[in-house]
């Protein structure tokens, strides 16, 4: 059964469950965080609307920089701003950031322990018709090995908003993994969230099988648990924080 302690969306198994792109939560979270903290600045690599950073850019045009299709510069400029006391958020498709600019993230951000927050959108195979060139399958692997980097893969738009806001205060580099397609809303505003803490979304009195899921695929894991109810005892964990 769904863990009642987490106050999850009770309609998440309905066919007409509300679905919102996870990246939308990032945009809303960045806007909310920016309203509270003047140190926050946004930088994008020519994908402002696609990554939903346009919400921040429209409200705070003097705190937003459009870098253009230059992902290496995106990381370098953000590192410099962080060195001057800013809290930069940078966004692009994950295939390009952290994909194309991995070395700059490694050297200028992580080795210097700059609190730059990296939002990589359109991850995994969910981008569909965009093709293999845009399907970031390696982003978790290449970010979790970086020193001081926190890696978070929120399961829905609400958790993405909470992730974005919480990342402001880590004082470290953070990679936030976002999906393109609309994703079922599984959590609620009352669902607790804490960086570094996993949660059991589906509980069982005598579990026989454990499923660990992260990001948008968590919904598929919950559907499997519901289908197996009464046959195999299953517990499902939401591992939103990949590292630490």
Automatic annotation (TrEMBL):
Q: Which Gene3D superfamilies match?
A: 3.40.50.920, 3.40.50.970
Q: Which UniProt keywords apply?
A: Thiamine pyrophosphate
Superkingdom classification of source: Bacteria
| Annotated Transketolase-like pyrimidine-binding domain residues | 20-185
Enumerate the cofactors the protein uses: thiamine diphosphate
> What is the similarity comment for this entry?
Belongs to the transketolase family.
**What's the protein called, per UniProt?**
Transketolase
Q: What is the lineage of its organism?
A: Bacteria, Candidatus Zambryskiibacteriota
């Amino acid at each position: 059964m769904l863990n009642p302690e987490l106050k999850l969306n009770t309609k998440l198994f309905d066919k007409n469950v509300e679905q919102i792109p996870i990246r939308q939560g990032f945009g809303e979270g960045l806007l909310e965080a920016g309203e509270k903290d003047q140190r926050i600045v946004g930088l994008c690599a020519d994908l402002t609307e696609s990554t939903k950073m346009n919400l921040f850019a429209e409200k705070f045009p003097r705190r937003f920089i459009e870098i253009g299709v230059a992902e290496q510069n995106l990381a370098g400029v953000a590192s410099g701003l962080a060195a001057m006391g800013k809290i930069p958020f940078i966004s692009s498709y994950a295939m390009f950031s952290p994909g194309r600019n991995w070395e700059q993230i490694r050297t200028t951000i992580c080795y210097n322990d700059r609190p730059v927050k990296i939002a990589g959108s359109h991850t995994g195979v969910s981008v569909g018709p965009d093709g293999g060139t845009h399907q970031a399958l390696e982003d978790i692997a290449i970010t979790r090995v970086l020193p001081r980097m926190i890696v978070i893969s929120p399961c829905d738009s609400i958790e993405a908003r909470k992730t974005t806001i919480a990342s402001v205060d880590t004082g470290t580099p953070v990679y936030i993994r976002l999906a393109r397609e609309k994703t079922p809303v599984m959590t609620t505003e009352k669902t607790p969230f804490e960086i570094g803490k996993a949660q059991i979304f589906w509980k069982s009195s005598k579990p026989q099988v454990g499923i660990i899921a992260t990001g948008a695929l968590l919904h598929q894991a919950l559907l499997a648990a519901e289908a197996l109810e009464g046959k195999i005892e299953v517990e499902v964990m939401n591992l939103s924080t990949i590292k630490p």
